[in-house]
Amino acid sequence: MIRLRRRMALIGLLSLMTTTPRLSADEGMWVFNNLPLEQLKATYGFEPSEEWISRLRSSAVRFNNGGSGSFVSADGLVMTNHHVAADTLQKLSTAAEDYYRVGFLARSREAELPAPDLELNVTSAIRDVSDRVNAAVTPEMSDAEAATARRAAMAAIEQEATAENGMRNDVVTLYQGGQYHLYTYKTYTDVRLVFAPEFDIAFFGGDEDNFEYPRYCLDVAFFRAYENGQPAHPEHFLRWSDAGSKPGDLVFVAGHPGRTSRLNTMAHLEYFRETGFPFLLDLIRQREAFLSEYSRRGEEQARQAKEDLFSYQNSRKARLGGYQGLQDEAFMRRKAERERALRDQVSADPEMAASYGDAWEKIAGSRAVAAENLASYNMLERGLAFESRLFQIARTVARLVAEDRKPNEERLREYRASNRPSLELDLYSEAPIYPEFEAAKLANALDYWRRTMGADDPVVHRVLGGREPEQVARELVEGTRLADVSFRKQLVEGGLEAVQESDDPMIRLALAVDPEARAIRKTWEDRVEGVETAQYARIAEAMFKTQGDSVYPDATFTLRLAFGTVKGWEEDGKTIPPYTVVEGLFERAESHGNVEPYRVPESWVEAKEDGRLDLQTPMNFVSTADIIGGNSGSPVVDRDGQVVGLIFDGNIHSLILDFGYDDTLARAVAVDSRVIAEALRSVYGAEALLRELTEGR
């Protein structure tokens, strides 16, 4: 699954294209205000109309939990993946009703279930504000001072835009500092669950088949967006294709890829290979082992941990693939050659050499600072030493009341006025919190922190005080009142004084570690991010001078368009066909003994035995579209802009796409529109939902 989880963004991950060779035919995650229209026309003879572009842009939806989706009816019906919906399914589930495991279908609008803290964003406008952001920087400023000035300018732009349009506004850094664009979003916070299938069919094959192909998954879910208590009526929605796609068809993916690093320098990549990835993989494996052990304690413990466990398993497989890509000598040699080509161009021109020549060395210096501070930054500022929803709440409360005392442009980014509605939606969520799970997670994280930093580390010693992590975690979880939403609100309303005087142990912990956490954040922002924003901007300017704006920016969890063709591949002398069919689902289950993770739900078995299910229905398919984590839930549309599929994964070869595009073996994996319709009709009896989907009402 190509999931993007905020808590897994431990390090900005990877890739390189510091110089840009001629793009492959289907390469690119293109911003909607700079689409490769000439490339599409020259390669495919396709010229999308303004209406086609506008409809696709306005139909695409971003989920605040790290996924994508799309409007697929006039009444606010939103399609995404089951694994994007999983966070909500987990929060709506109980021991008695486990929607994550058994699925859910609302037979009426009244039966649709409100999601506790789900926010959907739809891009309504994009504007280049680079000149204004860069105007805040003066020549005598250091990189750190320049970064502070840019952040203040970005905050001011967002605040002014929100005052003007009443919407969410985010200034997004593109080309790692080469450009700044203001994205304006229409936001929906009343979002309700309509349908999700059983886990066993949504993630058929489990971790073993993840990032593999052939696949047989119905990784789909539907929500509905509401406004003022009524179903939303979006400006645009996508029509459904009954015919689906066929081999060789041109298809498009509109979604929100999370992060690539194709513009990174060799020094940056070498840091990830030698330092970043080893640190990340060690942490992921440790967390995965803990969650597996906790799940074995009982059925209820397994239910509580299931979503976290699958997230870490997915991340482990994805990051390991990326790490292996960095160790490929031929791949790294090609990247080094491309970087050298650009640097030679810069060196050959005295004016360019003076303007850009030392940018690469300065980035190498910033990566040395990153390596030195990596563990402290992740443990303290990113909170990996305190893995607990209760600690996250405590930190948010403590920082919110402190940041509110500052002018908006001086606040930490996540506490700016433009982000306040989203922050409060999360902070005051009624999602369940399980004390036993919280205490176990926190104890495990504290123990890992102690082993990573050493028991003599001053902050470790301050928190543990010679006690064992299990004792500290138990006292914190048993003593805190932060599971009570009204108590959280009371603290925030009481302001800084109420928080500082609180005797709540989790609040006391958040306050105790905040000075060091803020200090390491400032070091990171000034000496790593600040330097790299300035230096990558210089490299981007050199690229623009030699390449123009034909270079697409790295992914930033903003709306992008990718395209490609429905196409299998050749590997080890075998032809991998682009489609699988429903019949193959049952054959694969039988070949694995019909046991988890290859167990077909009883609803599907009955539909097959009753003759209701068409076994030749296309189930999953692959294409050459350029996707990455965050694209999960993106619609796949044809030339007419009709839905023919739903992105849910990439094959194992797609893991290299963090670094650069390849269409020889890498493929995007999608659920076929035809199996979604067939399942709703023949397995689940969801006729009303099917009519809405296919008729657009």
UniProtKB/TrEMBL annotation:
EC number(s) on file: 3.4.14.-
One term of GO molecular function: serine-type aminopeptidase activity
Domain of life: Bacteria
GO biological process: peptide catabolic process; proteolysis
Signal sequence residues: 1-24
Pfam families to which the protein is assigned, alphabetical: Peptidase_S46
InterPro entries registered for this protein in UniProt: Pep_S46, Peptidase_S1_PA, Peptidase_S1_PA_chymotrypsin
Keywords, in A-Z order: Aminopeptidase, Hydrolase, Protease, Serine protease, Signal
Family: Belongs to the peptidase S46 family.
Function comment: Catalyzes the removal of dipeptides from the N-terminus of oligopeptides.
Protein name as annotated: Dipeptidyl-peptidase
